[in-house]
Design goal:
Length: 152
């Protein structure tokens, strides 16, 4: 999806029992992909959550943060095995998470990526299909097809 997701940045059966554990799992995955320290990523995500939840409603969360040593915007998508309480705006548990990490100086690129992800995940049909998808290739195909259709 707009170059943000690859097969190594999709998790289709993530186990987490809490928001904090979900963020920890995402930070671990992000560390492997970005080369940044897991603890720095985790702390950045927690700091952002303290400003207000990234649980946007309808079972979706879009945690995000900026890190000084990144060279581009990174995305990680996770489908949780069981929904977790994410302090979402609609008080519904979250089972679809799209993490975005951007360079500190990314400014508009970070906001554009965030807006595109939010717009994409407002598509109820896509979210329903993602919830039923158990394969990384299927997730990538669904997200890319929907992103292309929205861009047209």
């Amino acid at each position: 999806m707009f170059g943000l997701l690859t097969d190594s940045s999709v998790i289709v059966d993530m186990h987490a029992t809490s928001k904090k554990q979900a963020l920890q799992e995402l930070a671990s995955k992000a560390s492997k992909i970005t080369g940044q320290p897991e603890r720095v990523i985790f702390d950045t995500l927690l700091e952002r959550e303290r400003l207000g939840t990234t649980g946007v409603g309808r079972g979706i969360a879009i945690p995000h943060g900026k890190l000084p040593d990144l060279n581009k915007v990174y995305g990680i998508f996770a489908k949780l095995r069981e929904p977790v309480d994410f302090d979402s705006v609609d008080d519904q548990p979250v089972d679809l998470i799209f993490l975005l990490l951007a360079p500190t100086e990314a400014g508009a690129d970070h906001l554009k990526a965030l807006a595109r992800v939010a717009r994409l995940l407002r598509n109820d049909g896509l979210c329903r299909k993602l919830r039923g998808c158990d394969h990384i290739d299927g997730v990538l195909a669904l997200v890319n097809e929907t992103a292309e259709a929205h861009a047209a």
